[in-house]
Amino acid sequence: MAAYAVPALYAVVIWWFSTGLIILLDHRPRSTHPWSMAVGTLILAAALWAIGASATDTSEAGAYTAFTGALLVWGWQEMSYYMGFVSGPRTEACPQGARGFARFRAALATSLWHEAAILLGGAAILGLTWGGPNRFALWTYLILAGMNLSARLNMFLGVRNLNAEFLPAHLAYLAGFLRNRPMNPLFPVSVALAGFGTVWLAQAALGEGIDAHELVGFTIVATLMALATLEHGFLMLPLPSAALWQWSLPGRGADATPVPARGAVEYGTAAPAPTLATRSRDVPETTG
C-alpha cells in the first residue's frame, strides 16, 4: 500500500498548501499583487515547459511533474482572477431584481475573461501533451476546471455554506450572485458524477498490469478527484472546512468579521474558487 500512499499524500499536501498560499497572496495589500502576478507568470511559463517536457516521460517522476505543472497553471488562473487582473467586463453587483437568464448573464460577465483564460490554458496543455504517452497534466487540469465549474454553478443556484472569508474585499460585489439554500437540483447530480469519477480513477489505479508511471498518475488524479468531491460536500454539510486554511488569512482569527461575499474554483468557481471549488463562508441569504 506504500506505493499508493506516497502519491496520495503528495496530492493532499500540495493541494492544501497551494490553496493556502494563493489565499495568502490574494489577501496581501493590493500594491503587492503586480509583483505576485509577475512571479506567478514566470512560474506559469516554467510549468508549461515542464508539462511539455514530461509529455514523453513515462516514469514516476514524469507523473509527478505533470500533476504539479498542471496545478501551477491552475494556480495562475485563480490568482489572476482573485487579484483582478483577468476577470470580466462587469465589476458591479447583481442588478436589482434580476432573475433567470438575466442574472446568469450578469454573473458570467464578472468572470468572462477568466473563463476564456481557463479554456486557453486547457488548450495549451492539450497541445503540449498531444501525441505523448503522459497525459496526467491534462487529466489534472480537466478535473480542476470541471469541478470548479460545478461548484460555481451550485453556488449560483444555492448552497447551505457560502463561506466568504477567503474572498478578497475588492470582490465583495459578487455577493448578489450567490444564494443561500439548503439544496438545489444540480447538487446531487454533481456529487454523484464526482463520486463515480473518483471510483473510476481509483479502479484504474488499482488495475492489474499497470506500470509505476500509471500507478502514481492515477493515484494522484483519483486523490484530487476525491478532494474535489469532498469540497462539494463542504458546500452543504455543517463542517468547519474554513479552518483548514485559516493560517492563510493573517490577522483574521476565528472571530474576525467575514467579508460579505464569495465566489466559487478556486482550488476553484457566482465566481471560481481559489483552487478546486469552494473556499467561502456564510453570507446573508440573497436571491440576487
Automatic annotation (TrEMBL):
It comes from the Bacteria. Keywords: Membrane, Transmembrane, Transmembrane helix. This is Photosynthetic complex assembly protein PuhE. The chain crosses the membrane at residues 6-25, 37-55, 106-130, 136-157, 186-206, 212-230. InterPro entries: Photo_alph_chp2. Pfam families: DUF3623.
